[in-house]
Amino acid sequence: MEMEKVRVRVLPRPLIAALAGCAVLGGALMLLPPDRSSAVPSPGPAARAELAVTAGSPAALPDLAALIGDREAFVRAHPRDGQAWAQLGSAYVERGRRTADATDFPRAERALRTSVKVRAGQNAEALGGLAALANARRDFQAARKWGEAALRQAPKRWTSYPPLLDAYTGLGDYKAVRRTLERLQGLRSGAAVPAVSARAAGVYRDEGRREDAQAALADAAARAATPAEEAEWQYRAGELAWERGEPADALRHFEAALRLDPGLGSARAGEGRALAALGRTREALSAYRAALARQPSPQYALELGELYDSLGRPEEAQAQYAVLRARVAKEQVGGVDGELLLGRFEADHGDAASAVRRLRAQWARQPGLEVADALGWALHRAGKGEEALGWAKRTTDKEHGGEVRSALYAYHRGMIERESGLTGPARRHLAEALRINPYFSPVGGPEAQEALNELGAL
Fold first, then answer.
1. CATH class of the domain defined by 344-455
2. pLDDT, tens only, 228-272
3. Closest Cα partner for 90 from 128, 38, 135, 121?
4. Distance CA 30, CA 204 (A)
5. Residue-range domain boundaries for the chain
6. How close are the terminal C-alpha atoms of the chain, in Å?
7. Quick one: which of 6, 52, 68, 319 has the fewest CB in 10 Å?
8. Average pLDDT, stretch 78-90?
9. Which of 236, 228, 313 is nearest to 270 (CA)?
10. Stated pTM of the model
């Protein structure tokens, strides 16, 4: 039985966040000379970003730029400082992730490898940075290698764990995900960190535990130490609300995130998604354009293109699909694996046979649920329904980790079953998709409803 939906309240900046900030400043105060005035100024942009990057928390783009400039100047003068190189590399990773600019990733790799070279032995910070870089590039095997190396060196350092959660998820090793989260939550230093709550929320979401995910994100946002950190957790709460089929709640979270961090492109794209679901099409198009200007992600270009398609504007849709291809090619130069997104795109808007080839190869490298779903759908679009159904079932098979409640996965399975003449199961899964989130796709949502109408009532 579907669990009762619980609305997520948009969280104001609470007193406890101020107390967390005071704790940071209190620690800094203890390091000051005794004759220093008790009026301690707030940390500057570079110091704020250093605190965030070191603690594995989100940082604002202007602060990251300040930290990168500061660390670049420092390592020119001190080229043997391994810690500074590690901080610089991690800052590049975070900026590249935030801006969807993969040109930062080769810079990050050079800095992090330099850190490993000049600081041989214990250097979990640089190893963790290499794991985060590999995750950003969707190279989950490399992320697992670097992450496990960092964990061996620093098993009590909580920041060693999050990159491994991402790597294991990308590789479909859900038992390892659960085991790693349990170890992370058992650390005294990690249990009280907002970023740990946010990481736990992602695992709970993948396990179908939406209420637990929602509560964990609310806790993370309540205890965030900076506006940029709270903005990230508000954005993720918006994503959860969106996946529940509650666009109005999602929009409130995305707007809250943008008030805290106007440069957060992911929240602007989420805003576009929610506005489109609410029928505010003109505003949705503006939001997507703004998101692409801030963070030109090929995923956002795909979403905007499909929105144009749903509005009967094929030429503008094709223009966005051209942007998608160009952005994927540019990201590949920076080492990003864009084959999953290209496979999804080709299955729906291009050459399905090409999509199958891409996604088979992707499965061999990155056998996660997203790839299984995309491969099943590509096989369906290529006319290989029997094989497609096996992959579609895998995405909802709990033995393989398929516990996430995804409208897209249910839609794909229902359409494959319909094509295979499995009328009853097709009805169930199409109805499930629309029950989970009737707005999951501006194209797929109406197609699911039309197919369900043709199949008749349950």
1. mainly alpha
2. 999 999 999 999 999 999 999 999 999 999 999 999 999 999 999
3. 128
4. 38
5. 297-327, 344-455
6. 16
7. 6
8. 96
9. 236
10. 0.88
